[in-house]
Amino acid sequence: TNTLQQVGTDTTQTIADTITEVFVKDAIILNTTAQVDSYYNGMSITLSRSNSAGDTYTQKRRIIGYENSGNVAIVDFPWDEGYFPDTGDTYIISGGRPDVRVSLNPAMQLLDYLTSDRYGAGLDIDLDIDLETFKKAARDCDTKSNVTVITATAPTIGHSYEYAPSGVIHFRGKVESVTTRTFDLNNDETDETYYEVVFTDVIGKLGRKWNDWESFRPDELIWKDKKLYKKTTALSTYTISNSNLVTAQNLTKVGASSTTLALNLDNTPAGSSANGNPVVKSFFNDTFNASGYSLYDSDDVKYWKYIGWDSNAQRNVTRHQMNQVVSTSNPVFD
């Protein structure tokens, strides 16, 4: 017919018989079961169209209106010209609002700048960009810190160990290397043998620095002034107490709980890292004064909020990250 449907009462409804299709630039008819009015409001929708060559054109919008009558969603920004929703297209609706914070990853920052139509070069991410190289660079930038500990025995390279009291993983890592260190740490004119173990693919953190404003989990390892403590109560802040002092601590082999790895907890000036960590440390000049983190310890970052972190957790430490401000007031690509 020559009658428009589902466009509201403010639109002239009769059109010429020669017009066979009409697209509403900021709407889409959903093919899912109709829901109550406003059901999808605030959710994001990703619309995709693939051609015969396998190339996919993707658009992402936020749903700002939805009506049960007609099962129609209204989006916050018009669909790209030539790619209005049509038969054969697919879409995904994601609940909740997306995380739109700027990435700290330099590779992702550059990709965003190159592809932005508002303040960048406006390059097509599918046609103008070698996306795989950007992904590889981004993964390299996101490399996490390896963790070094000192042990009494030498574990097997490739095996994984963890600290997981009551089944809750606080730390897990895979043995990357083992170095034998034989020297007189105790200054008793007798050499002792230690094993410097480097863990990679690390999850969690093996011991956190004590701060009176932080909350700690039950059984979490906490260090202060070269001493290690274990919190035994529920989630809350923690007051240092000698009753919770740890003098011996093991890691357990993943998949073989009977196999343990005893950690060196030497709390002498020569036996702890320079910042007072008695458990994560590495060899330097016949001491264990060097940091046990291949990058750095997140506990040493005082102003973590100002560099874009949402917490001072070790997972936020990466090989390369940038929090610079890019001025977009004067386009450089015009």
Could you characterize what this model shows?
The protein is mainly beta and 334 residues long. The chain has 3 domains: 1-98, no CATH class; 106-141, no CATH class; 147-298, no CATH class. The protein is 6% helix and 31% strand. The chain has 2 helices and 19 strands. The longest helix is centred in the middle third of the chain and has 11 residues, at 131-141. The radius of gyration is 29 Å and the shape is elongated. It starts with 26 loop residues before the first strand and ends in a 43-residue tail after the last strand.
Topology overview:
Blueprint: E1 27-29, E2 44-50, E3 56-67, E4 72-75, E5 90-94, H1 106-115, H2 131-141, E6 147-151, E7 160-163, E8 171-183, E9 192-204, E10 208-209, E11 215-216, E12 221-224, E13 227-230, E14 236-237, E15 245-246, E16 250-253, E17 256-262, E18 281-284, E19 287-291
Parallel strand pairs: 10-12
Antiparallel strand pairs: 1-4, 2-3, 2-5, 3-4, 6-9, 7-8, 7-16, 8-9, 11-14, 12-13, 13-15, 16-17, 18-19
Helix pairs in contact: 1-2
How would you describe this structure in keywords?
334 residues; mainly beta; 3 domains; six-stranded antiparallel beta sheet; five-stranded antiparallel beta sheet; 2 helices
Précis, in short:
The protein is 6% helix and 31% strand.
